[in-house]
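Subject: for your reference before the review

Hello V.,

The reviewers asked for a structural picture of the protein, and I figured it would be easier to keep everything in one thread rather than splitting it across files. Below is the amino acid sequence we used in the manuscript, unchanged from the supplementary table.
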Amino acid sequence: MSLRVGKRTASLAGGALVLVILAVTALWWFNRTDDAPYAVSADGPRVTLVYDGERPDEDIDTFLTVLVQRLAAGDVKGVDALADGYPDGSGATQESSEFLRPLAASAAAGKVTAKVAGAEDARPLSQRLKAPGGGTSQADLTLADGKHLRVQLAREHGVWWGYALAPAG
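And here is what came back from the structure prediction:
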């Protein structure tokens, strides 16, 4: 009889282990972050981005560096493409081209200072569960010649997207 109890205990332990492994795999799957579809270009213009205040996480830093690099290269369509994953951001990108073109030289002129607001996720719990890895933030950029640009940021499925708003001054 003790042999049957030992087999039953081993079967229950094995089943519990399988359930734990499945649960951990499911948590990883639903909370994973996908690689960003953009990266800093080694061939693009070299940009210097410094932060006024606390440096943001690496993903926001990469996003802003790519945005400034594309702007400095005069690649307005490339800047607009950084809004492709932003929720409801496609309409804003069509408007941005008009004011971004004249800022290309300002972005290429030297150091760009960024002040980034803390990221937050104010979505209801049901949306957070449906689409994890979300959040919003904004960055105020001061270009080398003193011109300003505000960037609205949103994180969808762990990837930061954003679009430029009309210059503040």
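For the response letter, the relevant points are probably these. The chain has a mean pLDDT of 79. Strands lie at 49-51, 112-116, 135-142, 148-156, 159-165.

Happy to draft the paragraph if you're swamped.

O.
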